[in-house]
Amino acid sequence: MYSVAEVKNLDRIRQKILIPAIFGGLAITFGYFGLAILVRDELVAFAGIHFGKFAADITPIVLILPSVAPFLAILLWAERRAKAYAIICPNCGSDQTRSTARILATLCCKNCLQQIVAGERVRKPEVFNRYARVRWRRYLVYWFWAWPALGVVMLIGYWLNPRSFEPCLHVLFVPGFTGTIAAGWAFTRTFDRRYLPQMGASAVTLAIGGILFWTAFW
């Protein structure tokens, strides 16, 4: 059986691993975008001279596709490293790491409902569920709306002045792409349906931005 201090310490260590990895992955991704902008014209010209017009047209897309690889690789590495500090239920053997707040509130395993944290007061899961919905609603609802909102701003800007986007047309779909990946990742990790509207909105801006990006070359 865990103590409250042990659960908090394990959670703290995991956060020290995961949070820097998330920000580091984002920094590398945006750094890659900056590098791609710098070499884009030279690579397009090289592809056009040596491989033809079609190769020149698809080169900007090929440059963007690898951008998500470093982000996902760092996240997977951090997640694997953080598993060493997982909270495992001694009764059913399930991983309770992503339920730290619930464990500290109820002192029980989310899966088998047996007490796994030492303490005298055991709150019912229903009480915690109501508390969690109220506490986290604003974060779950609003956080991932930033990406589709940014995508809409980019699309409106392109509609008002298309020429201003000619040096960096990929920004039309990057916010939607990032938002879809981020919200989709959160949903696959938690299966919380409150992430779906944000993921859907990001996917729509991604589709529209991708179409505009593609048609700009034809």
- Computed structural class: mainly alpha
**Strand and helix order:** HHHHHHHH
Question: How much β-strand is present in the residues?
Answer: under 5%
β-strand number: 0
Q: Please, how many helices?
A: 8
Shape: elongated
**Largest sheet, described in full?**
none
Amino- and carboxy-terminal Cα gap: 64 Å
Percent helix, as a range, is 55-70%
Q: Provide the gyration radius in Å.
A: 22 Å
Taking pLDDT < 50 over at least 5 consecutive residues as the criterion, the unreliable ranges are none
Q: What's the average pLDDT? A: 82
Please tell me about this protein's structure:
This protein is mainly α and 218 residues long. Helices cover 70% and strands 0% of the residues. Helix 1 (4-51) packs antiparallel against helix 2. The chain is elongated and about 75 Å long.
Summarize, please.
The protein has 218 residues and is an all-alpha fold. The chain has helices spanning 4-51, 53-64, 68-82, 100-106, 125-142, 146-160, 174-190, 196-215.
Layout of strands and helices, then pairs:
Elements: H1 4-51, H2 53-64, H3 68-82, H4 100-106, H5 125-142, H6 146-160, H7 174-190, H8 196-215
Helix pairs in contact: 1-2, 1-3, 6-7, 6-8, 7-8
